[in-house]
Amino acid sequence: MLDGRVVRVWKGEGTPDGVARYCGEHFPQHVLPELRAVDGFLEARVLVRTTETTSELIVMTTWASLEAVKAFSGEDYDQAVVEPVVGKLLERFDEEVTDYTIAHDVR
Known about the structure:
Elements: E1 6-14, H1 16-36, E2 41-50, E3 55-63, H2 66-73, H3 86-89, E4 92-93, E5 98-101
Antiparallel strand pairs: 1-3, 1-4, 1-5, 2-3
């Protein structure tokens, strides 16, 4: 049974330094305050995988409902909300996000 919560998944990649700057500076100082300001935002996770030459990141945000997602991203909610500075930190990132409805949440 689906519970109505939505997980948004966005991916990017870049140099280890660029991804570290995204995670250590951009996300906590700019993205997280914007997320926390939206009613219905529940949590965020940033996952990183680093090799010798590149780093990948996945940002997963959890929302109370699709309506909460739309309050953050607008009606065209499949479009990623990405500030221009991210293009200086990452070499590639998704222009669109993938939204999933939570079916099971076991902790």
